[in-house]
Specification:
two-stranded antiparallel ribbon, alpha+beta, disordered N terminus, 2 helices, Jelly Rolls, globular
Amino acid sequence: MKRSVQGVLAATACAVAVAIPGWAYATPSEGISGVTWVDIEVPPGLLPFVPDGVHAVAREITIEPGGSTGWHYHDGPVLGIVRAGTLTHPEGDCEPVMFETGDFINEPSGPDHLHVGRNLGTEPVILDVVYLVPIGSPLFEDVPAPACD
């Protein structure tokens, strides 16, 4: 009985993975690590400059040389500063935008703003970022690479 339940669960997991195209075609990240400093829900009306019902997360993200975030977008804005290294950051048109140490990053939200972060250098890229996503939304949504990549 135990083996048949495990078999059914395994078959169900495989069927779900095949049925969800984003899983099959998303571009995985590699060489990425992160440390979360703050993870809070901001109540509506608490701060006038923060949209209502926001999940605010402050993180340090490290991208090792040769590492990539994978293609993705955010359901809310992301603000950040490059603390170290040079981030190569193409958007959906695949034109690379370079962010160097001290540069400010402002990533707009939504699937029209897909992008990837890459470290093409020899030293780690360190980013300090704040995500402002709707409560209940993930920090990012994986997507397939655009045709130009």
